[in-house]
Amino acid sequence: MASIGSRTAFIMDYSNYTSEDFVLDDYFQKWVAGKLPEEDTFWPDWVREHPEKGPLISQATFVLKALDMDHEPISDQKVREKVRQIIDNATDKPVSIHPFYQSLWFRAAAAVTLLLGLGWYLMSQQKPAPMLYDELVIAQPQPLLEKINNSDQPLRISLSDGSVITLQPNGKLSYPERFETDKREVYLLGEGMFEITKNPKQPFYVYANELTTKVLGTRFSVKAYANDKAIIVKVFTGKVSVQTRNPPAHSSEQPFNQREGIILTPNQMAVYDRPPAHLTRTLVENPVLVKTTPENKPDFHFENTPVSQVFERLEQGYGVKIVYDSDQLKNCTVTAPFDNESLYEKLNLICKVIRASYEVIDTQIVISSRGCN
Amino acid sequence: MSEYTVATELWTAFKKGDKEAYGNLVALFYKTLYNYGTKLTRDKTVVEDCIQDLFLELWQRREYLSETEYVRFYLLKSLRRKIYAQQSLQQKWLHQSLETNTEGEFLGEFSIETRMIEVETTEHHLKKLNQLLGKLTRREREVIYLKFYQELDYEQIAAIMSINYQSVRNLIYTAIKELQSAWFEE
User: Which structural domains are found in chain B, ordered by start?
Assistant: First the structure.
């Protein structure tokens, strides 16, 4: 299977090659892909010596270019981190493999990222946010284990229930050695990726400063940026409940006496501003498809489709609510073979076609249009 | 030295417990595996976890692994199995129909506009090409990917996708023939 490079070229007689043969030839493929070293001038020479083969070569090049695909980018930096992580985790303890395996399967349950910045250094004149983490941890009656990540690498922590938490540098996590039977509670300062095993009888709570995030099931992320004084919870699938927490008595200068709580469904996010200690709900910046399986991937190919149906398809696909005046838009149709564009890209195009505009108000998308004729 | 020789040497050294060779092997194939994995599922964390899981297992089972010339093939195949196994388990867990095909979609997309400007093409060619590429099935796209991007041979592709050798050949030939027809389209 290895291409032996120019050596092959000397043995091979390409003059009887068909276009398919060229397409399937490793050496030719490498040339078209620009993977041959500059010194290797076999193909340019060959093409020059065989002008009659020009059309064949063009056709084969055309097909090969067409067959190239788009690739998900990953940075070298990220690759280095991942490789390092794998090397660090490679141990000879066969026991460690099983829980990790399991947690991977059951990770379908929940993935939570919690981020808590370490303070807004540039604005050090301002009163820093209270160190709620320490207060919370001290207030717990049962002894807690604490992991502090002082390294510059993410730290993987396994909990007794099989959940795995990857704690970023400068983060702290406190958790009991064994969870209580009715609930699982952990305390976080800093940033962490949570992979929570699902157990409806034993809900999982993450306490991060003023916010409590309760996992009702499936997948979501929590990002708490202390530096812009906001904590953000985003939901991808399933349901998540987010509540503000009553502060300990001695930090009562904070003006929230009332607990606020909201439930988030897919593509919604909660923003908690601290201060003014207020919890609001909106849509995430980039809503993703909900409940997608390969079998029922929503079809966004529209051909003269009434816009009401288009919106309905989008509502179902992304689990969002789209509000519009159906009377005004009754003559509008959309023709667009949508595929992997984001929801907002799709909306932009649709709005262009039907001469409309949209805005996101609360968790709804509101369309205003002058109608179509 | 070609990738194959390098990989085979690293493989042999890693099997003997050489952690540095192991690290080099991971580094050599991480991007390749990530590239393939992200075509099998949209969830990048699943891909990352499966790759990590795959390599950690390899380390633990290193003494029992056999020698292989085809490291790339072996790794791609194992990753594919892992990702699909996880998807089917997730589906089971979500109480979805168990009869459904456990193979997911294949996410490799052809977006030709940028690349085709390098060769002589007309708008008409592009239009026709887009139509043809859009019609390719997930299997055809995966075969094309494994053949032209991962540079595997027919036998290896057949083994990875659990289809027979002849089907792989046919899928590729049909796809090439189709695309060639776009070239003659005027």
Answer: 3-93 (1.10.1740.10), 113-184 (1.10.10.10)
